[in-house]
Amino acid sequence: MAIKPSLPLALFLALAVLPLLLGLGYALAYSLGIIGYGAEGLTLAHWRAVLGSAYFWRTLAFSFYIALVTISLAVGVAMALAVAWPRAFRRGSLSLFIYFPLAIPAIVMAFFIFQLLSGGGLVSRLSWQAGLISGLEQFPGLVNDRWGIGIILAHFLMAAPFFTILFARLYASERAEALVLLARTLGAGPRQAAFRVVVPVLLRRVFPTIVLYGLFVMGAYEAPLLLGRQTSQMVSVLAVQKLQRFNLGDIPQAYVICLAYAAIVLTLAAWLLGRERARG
Amino acid sequence: MLLHAVDITKRYGREDVLRAAGLHLQSGEMLSILGRSGSGKTTLLKILAGLEAPDSGQVFLEGRDISGLPPNLRGIVYLYQEPLLFPHLNVFENIAFGLRLRHLPRQDVNARVTQLLDNLELPGHAGKMPHQLSGGQRQRVAFGRALAVQPKVLLLDEPFGALDAETRASMQVLLQQITRQYGITGIFVTHGIKEAIVVGSRIALMRDGGLKAYETIQAFIDDPTTGVRDEMDFWKGLS
Amino acid sequence: MAGRFLKYAFIALLLFPFAFLLMLSFGRGWGYPHVFPEQWTLENWRFILESQAGLGHSVLLSLLVSLGVAVPVTLASFWVSRAVSYSPYRRRWLVLAYLPYVLAPVVLAACLQAFFFRGGLSGKVWGVMAAQLFITFPYGVIFFSGFWNRRMQAMEQLVATLGGSRAQAYIRVLIPVAREALMTCFFQIFLISWFEYGLTTLIGVGKVQTLTLKVFQYVNEANIFLAALAGCLLVLPPVVLLWLNRRYVFSGAGGR
Fold first, then answer.
1. Disulfide: which of A255, B160, C82, C144 matches A27 by Cβ 3.0-4.6 Å?
2. What is the pLDDT of residues C240-256, one digit of tens each?
3. How far is the C-alpha of A182 from the C-alpha of C37, rounded, in Å?
4. What is the CATH number of the domain that holds A141?
5. How many CB pairs under 8 A join A and C?
């Protein structure tokens, strides 16, 4: 049947591709001093300023670190849960309740973590009641901290159920149970069957999703906004902050940060999708 | 002549799938087309049905050039290997589908569908949903859905490919009966020699993008290049 | 036995954030080191109904924005995804759809802010809806790319050879068969919009006060009880959807 490609594909270009191109184009022009308030013509000064600052690289590294730790923890725990209770997440009460954390938006999750783990939070109060500490200043800093523990935890609580559900579904669709039995008849112990068969089979299928989720965490905004701190920021927060400062001179730098981040994320995504295509 | 196709050519990229293929079909005939997978049988059927456009060549139905006609106006039904029943409709509504498209009066629809259900050995299944049927039953519903609209030509693209041997054999017989009973003109594509002989009243061989038609089944058997002789010798050698 | 206990403990853990938020939403006064609020009150919840600066307005606004985004995006992406999926360059189109989807919405908003400003759309509900459309539409296209497969194409062709027009194919077969997928996509896009914060703040310049902005505002005002209440309101629709069908919240498509 002849498919008329023109109209829907034109709509696709207008709604999905054009905004991205316009946005990146504008950011590029602004960052090069071609447009914007007080633009003085083509200059690489803003790029030099950002790429030459240690703070920018620290921000990128911090974002990468948060994404890496969050995803590793979430995938590890989810895998352990899915392998330990392969049926529980497909039948019975757990198969419903495991979805509940997905109903919590990032900003609410961040608020929850703050009320749980800050100096005046619930855990601190419980510690006081248990006699472990005698004042809220003794409670260790778990939010707005150097290592981003609060941010990691907030994203972990959203990512771990997500991957648990995914693994539990794949466990069924990839016929992991049959593969385990097969491995056992070939002489594998239960541990070997899990680590040499189930884990690699599931990880292989989920790898693109892991990378995509990692990219989302890298660009996260709400949780680091509430749970981060000025000296170790995540990249989205830094970009928006520079954009909204009263100093107009910071705006081109904000766009440099946006573009650098976009370049990394889009390159990784394109690589990942190209790789999937090569695999068929 | 009911259906007549001349010089049908189709390329996909660098591959010539059809090279000036032609065929003709008399009213009431069932032409079996034999060929290896990838020999262009499906492409030829889709071009006849109007689902794909040929690079060149023409298709005539009842003497009229229908090459530019969209599929829904041709009166040619194309059936896939899969029964492709509509999952949201029960057996009755699946068979009635084409009649509903034509807004036929209710009594006519009921009468025609009920009769088809009987002929296809499906009475009592009218209210069932597709997922409640066996593979053979599904394929019979798919026939019923096609026969209901009384197509001028019925194109069957390996309709029994997904069935087990036993169901397949009984379906071949049923198809032969039904097509005779309704006077169906059609083309039946398969890669099974026996199936081609059982179902078809005439046989053609698809090879190198062209179609070689045999006037009689005997002529087909006698052609040493078809491999029928070897097959027969093998079975004779066993007995 | 131990396994059973572990399972219930795990369920309690999963439900704990909800209980905690609910508790705070009914509280007043939570001095250190009290574990529970010092007073229980319905006052916070009554605050929803107060018209001025009340939460009720934000609930309605959020609903309006999310419905206004989810309905057209679901329909448009269903239609566009068909053309993308049946195109000979399907893969390339889909890679293009993934790019705006993987970029952080707040960064996309930062880059597009100026256009919205010039177009007189920043600070407007319409502007926020348009911006959310840009991030949800590619998601919809990716979502439906799984639906428009060879089987659906064959079914569409079958309708044609049985004598059906394009419109009849849509009305009698494609839309009924896609019903569940359409609902799932609709609810997922509704939730992406419902949960959205960063992009909404930037394009709405803080004037389009959806519920997520309210949470942030109350947090900044150190009003944890109202923040918890707004959180409860945000969580309510997805929980109801979970109860209806868990696939509405998570289908495994796309990955978010």
1. A255
2. 999 888 888 886 544 44
3. 56
4. 1.10.3720.10
5. 225
Q: Which chain B residues contact residue C179 at CB under 8 A? A: 88
Q: Is residue A56 part of a domain?
A: yes
Residue numbers of the domain that contains A163: 43-279
Which of B71, B79, B87 minimises the CB distance to C160? B71
Residue B233 token pair: 């010798």
- Asked, for residue A5, whether it belongs to a domain, the answer is no
Look up the CATH number of the domain holding residue B40: 3.40.50.300
The number of distinct structural domains making up chain A is 1
Task: Dump pLDDT digits (tens) for A41-54.
Answer: 899 999 999 999 99
Q: Show which subunits contact A, needing at least 3 CB pairs below 8 angstroms.
A: B, C
What is the pTM (predicted TM-score) of this model? 0.90
Asked if residue A206 is part of any domain, the answer here is yes
Q: Indicate the residue of C98, C137, C231 with minimum beta-carbon distance to A111.
A: C231
pLDDT tens, residue by residue, A92-132: 888 899 999 999 999 999 999 999 999 999 999 999 999 99
Whether A1 has its CB under 8 Å from any CB of chain B: the answer is yes
Instruction: Please judge whether B72 and C163 are an interchain contact, meaning their C-beta atoms are less than 8 angstroms apart.
Output: yes
Asked if C94 and C138 touch (Cβ cutoff 8 Å), the reply is no
Instruction: State ipTM.
Output: 0.93
Grade residue C51 by pLDDT with cuts at 50, 70 and 90.
low
Task: Report yes or no: B98 at the C interface, CB cutoff 8 Å.
Answer: yes
Closest-CA residue to C208 (of C220, C222, C193):
C193
* Contact call for residues C226 and C50 (beta carbons, < 8 A): no
Of the candidates C107, C28, C29, C94, the one whose C-alpha atom is nearest the C-alpha of residue A220 is C107
Contacts of C179 (CB under 8 A, 6+ apart): B88
